Amino acid sequence: MPEHDTVAVEVMRYRPEQESTPAPQCYRVPLRKEWTVLDGLNHIKDQLDGTLSYRWSCRMGICGSCGMTVNGEPKLACSTFLTDYAPESIRVEPLRNFPVIRDLVVDISDFMSKLPRVKPWLIRSDESEPEEGAYPQTPEEMEAYKRYSMCINCMLCYSACPVYALEPTFLGPAVIALGQRYNLDSRDEGAEDRRDVLASAEGAWACTFVGECSVACPKGVDPAGAIQRYKLTAASRSLKEFLLPRGAR
């Protein structure tokens, strides 16, 4: 295949049984208008080097599995096209701020351990079943939290977050945004249950509002906005508790 019909894809490889540190390896893949970076990686895996390791599943920007660093930016490989970068070479690396397990596969166990701390589920004081099998909710009430419910746990926001890079104890953008998603849900009564975690030094107050998490988010979730909204809520609640007697809050 003529060189102008291909593009160089430089993949960061790390096989712990072979390399002590990650190192780049270059491949040439067909340059086709409809091909994404994921298609290029699949071509490498199927036709050039079967040892390449990476995660992927739906190929539709829904599952969040194929988060990677493409030319220095956190991207979903399934929705990032080779033609966005050609004819220049394309550098594909694992997501930053996570331990690398192998090649482009990172360890997200830190995120998974933090996620349940914000109790990302509906909390009700009344445990009985709702009438007609559902709690009623208006379109306006759903709209209040819908944006924050679109998270696909792709980890792009964590890779982009400078706070998480420096302070691994930080809960992180997606976790806090998901906690806020339930706080804003009219059916939920668990805001107080989440308060100690979300309003802690490792929670919303650790965020310096750089905003890179929202820039990186492929689903428009705006975790930075969710965090700032929670800060306002938490500050208002603390001020009321300080100024008002308990019965007047």
Structural descriptors:
about 250 residues, alpha+beta, Ubiquitin-like (UB roll), Fumarate Reductase Iron-sulfur Protein, Chain B, domain 2, five-stranded mixed beta sheet, 9 helices, elongated, iron-sulfur, 2Fe-2S_ferredoxin-type, tricarboxylic acid cycle
Care to describe what's here?
By secondary structure, this protein is an alpha+beta fold. It folds into two domains: 3-106, Beta-grasp domain (Ubiquitin-like (UB roll), Roll); 109-248, Alpha-helical ferredoxin (Fumarate Reductase Iron-sulfur Protein, Chain B, domain 2, Orthogonal Bundle). The chain is 33% helix and 13% strand. It is built from nine helices and seven strands. It has helices at residues 37-48, 109-114, 139-146, 156-160, 162-166, 173-183, 191-198, 212-216, 223-243, and strands at 6-13, 23-30, 67-70, 73-76, 90-93, 100-102, 105-106. The strands form two sheets. A five-stranded mixed β-sheet has the order 2-1-5-3-4. A two-stranded antiparallel sheet has the order 6-7. β3 and β4 form a beta hairpin. α6 (173-183) crosses α9. The longest helix has 21 residues, at 223-243. The chain is elongated and about 70 Å long. It starts with 5 loop residues before the first strand and ends in a 6-residue tail after the last helix. The mean pLDDT is 94. Keywords: 2Fe-2S, 3Fe-4S, 4Fe-4S, Iron, Iron-sulfur, Metal-binding, Oxidoreductase, Tricarboxylic acid cycle. Pfam families: Fer2_3, Fer4_8.
